[in-house]
Design goal:
Blueprint: H1 2-11, H2 15-22, E1 34-40, E2 47-54, E3 66-68, H3 73-78, E4 84-86, H4 89-95, H5 97-103, E5 110-118, E6 121-130, H6 139-176
Antiparallel strand pairs: 1-2, 1-6, 2-3, 4-5, 5-6
Length: about 200
């Protein structure tokens, strides 16, 4: 499953494809019981836009939700290049007592927040919760988490660039298209756009 995720991430070109790759079959990655993939705001990095969440309770976890980074795991992860890992509920209670109280009763046994960076740019965050102990602090676990985070960050960077280019192209196309055509008795008018550059669909008549 991890191999399928990595392969899909390499092939992804849009944000929708990135989220589909991370949440294979709609399930959280790495065997987590809950996960959220968020983008950081460009002007306000403390704001996170939820691209996709799975297994996480609450109305605030709907796709497209814009929210401040929580004062615990996510906020700490957004301030460091390294993953923040909480291996047990006891560690959660000691490090983030307010979060421990808020998450009590969900049955999670371990948590991880993985900052997603590309070219020195903070792109977002992947948060994971596990229903059983998960040795992410071991050598293999850390390698897997780091590799997944790097692949997601690269895919997000490409997707953001791709979507920005697409928006620009569509804006140029709209500026070239005819507006509302006049109505004339006995005459039916139509307009057709022919791009000069077929690859990007810009310019032309």
């Amino acid at each position: 499953r991890l191999q399928r995720t990595m392969t899909a991430l390499v092939a992804s070109a849009s944000l929708a494809e990135v989220t589909a790759a991370v949440f294979q079959d709609g399930q959280p990655p790495l065997g987590a019981s809950a996960a959220r993939l968020s983008l950081a705001g460009q002007e306000q990095p403390e704001l996170l836009v939820t691209l996709k969440a799975a297994g996480v309770p609450g109305r605030a976890l709907a796709e497209g939700t814009v929210r401040p980074a929580p004062h615990w795991l996510s906020r700490e992860a957004m301030q460091t290049p390294a993953a923040v890992y909480v291996p047990t509920p006891a560690d959660m209670a000691a490090r983030f007592p307010e979060a421990h109280q808020a998450l009590h009763g969900y049955g999670h046994q371990a948590w991880a927040a993985l900052p997603l960076h590309s070219g020195g740019r903070r792109l977002g965050l992947l948060t994971l919760a596990f229903a059983r102990p998960y040795p992410l602090d071991s050598g293999p676990g850390e390698i897997v988490l780091t590799a997944l985070g790097s692949a997601i960050a690269d895919a997000l960077s490409r997707a953001i660039h791709h979507d920005s280019d697409r928006d620009l192209v569509e804006s140029v196309q709209r500026s070239l298209l005819a507006g509302v055509l006049p109505e004339r008795p006995g005459v039916r008018l139509g307009a057709h756009y022919m791009p000069a550059e077929t690859r990007y669909g810009v310019g032309g008549d």
